[in-house]
Every structure is written in structure tokens, then in C-alpha cells.
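Researcher: Next sequence.
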Amino acid sequence: MSITIASFDGADRTSVDEAYRIGSAVNDADLPDFPPSCRRRFDALFHTPMPGTRSLWALARLDGVPAGYLQLDLPQLDNTDNATAEVLVRPELRRRGVGRALHEYGVRLLREHGRKRVVAMAVSALPGGPPRSVAGDAFAAAIGAQPALAEVRRRLDVGEIDRVALRAALAEARPRAEGYHSVCWQGATPQEYVADIAYLDGRLLMDAPMGDVQWEPEQVDAERIRGNERALDARGRRRYHLGMRHEASGRLVAWTLLDVGASADWHAFQQITIVDPAHRGHRLGLIAKAENLHHLLTHESAVQVIDTWNAASNSYMVAINEQLGFRAVDSWTDWQLTL
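Model: Next structure:
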């Protein structure tokens, strides 16, 4: 067997097409409950990347047949010792050395770019949950990576939302939130709130449990928020935001985001939810998430399920999600490799 690996970029449409097909096959095999891979999203990774991120790509061929690809994301504005990685191999071509070859190729690239550590995620089954391939965890352990953070994906089935219980929970929470009111919007953040959103976004890696992952808080300003928005627009992500405004200061002090992809109107992701530490204890997280769920479903009537991830140790956010009706599906491990 002969394995060849070549770097490529967005100008190499043949390699982009092959990588997309590999990713689609992996997605369908390993995560059959996920939406199919979105071509618009994949293409946007090349022509409209997230601000402050440089991506390196490589395609592996096994006896001339496209077999796997590597994506390395190298932060440029912060975390300049770090990288994240994705190594995907077609299911029918695994256990033939393709993943190992891509890994070794990636390590050389990372060292050339002065990176000291790399983080990647792998999925595994939960007891009683749907079956998942053990290949990701086994591969990460075999190359010497260490499990650095345990996360759990939870899913909300919209048809099973207990709306009576949710209304009762909101009625109980709202008196605790006197002096705050909700503000919702779609797509780009109104200019008056951009600075507040940048502050909250920048707090995420300070406040969320990170386990042993060595990742410093990101430097987020209004320009970076606008760059993120352009990248998400290019991916076709339809975004539904809700912020909690502190009436005395006029600032947004909590924020949550739900979004729907361009090619699967039945599926949404619950993205960031964060409350400024100075304003915790007022049930703002629950109120924001519940009201934004209503906001989303008012405009996206086809949505049937919503997925979200939390660190297993994030008991506060897990409790809110479970109160909303999210239920655990599978386990995800952030593996960290020191180079």
C-alpha cells in the first residue's frame, strides 16, 4: 500500500471536493443523527475563515484513492503556541496507516509554525446511549495525546418540550431578574451592543470549565465580532440572539445564541450562553435560553432538534439545559498533545 500526502488550499478545487466527500462519509458513518455535511459551510472555511485563524489542509491518498484529510487551525491573535486539529479517514479505509501518516505530517507542519500543543475532539458512547466508534479515542491515545476535558452533547427534541413546566420555571425565575429585560435580534449584532457582546464573548474561556486544556482567553473586540459575523454569514448560519440588558447600566450582561445551518432546516445548535459574573444569581441564564428558544421556534418552524455541548463539570449550565429538556446523547473528549 502506498500513502501519499499533499497540502492544498481553496484554489485546488479537486482536493477541496475530495475532502468534502471524505468529511461527508465520516459524518454519515460516525454521527448518523447529525445533519448531512453542508457544502456551503465547508467551502466557506476556505474563502471566509474566522478572523485571526490560519488553516492548513492536507489530503491523503491510499494507492491513489482519496482516503483522508487533515485540517489544522492556527490562532494568529492569541494562543499562538496552540492549534486545533481534525483528522478524518474514510470509514472503509481505516486501520491502514492513513490517520497515522496524516498525524505525522501535521506534527511536522505544527513544529514548522512554532506550535507547542494541539487539541482535537473525539466522540464516544455513553452508557445506554447510541453506539459510537471507538476509533477516535483509540487513535488519540495511541499517538500520546492526553484527555484534557470531558464534554457531553445533549439534544432537545422540540416535540417533547414540556411547555407547562417551562412557563412555570420562567414565572419562578422572573422576579429574581428585576432590573433586567431581554433584547432579541437576528443575524448581525446591533451596533449599540457590539462592545458588550465582545466583552461577553471574550469571557467565555475565562468562565467555562476548561479542564486541563491549556488555552488562554481570546482577545475579542468589535472588529473581531464583525469578522465572526461575516464568516458565519458565508457559512449560511441563521442566528438568533437574546441578551439580558441591565437597566441601571444599560449594558448587556448575558447573551445566548441559537443557529440553524444552510442545508438542514430541521436542526439547530445551541451555541454560547454566558452571564457576566457580576450579574449571576438572577436566573438570567435560564431566562435568556428559554426566551431565545421561543424566539428561534417562532421563526424556524421546521426545527425538530437542537444540539448543545457542555463540559461534564459545568453543573450550572447542565442543570439549565436539562430543565429545558435537553438529554444526554454521547460523550466528547478534548485530547491535548504536547509537541
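Model: The chain is about 35% helix and 30% strand. The first strand starts at residue 3 and ends at 8.
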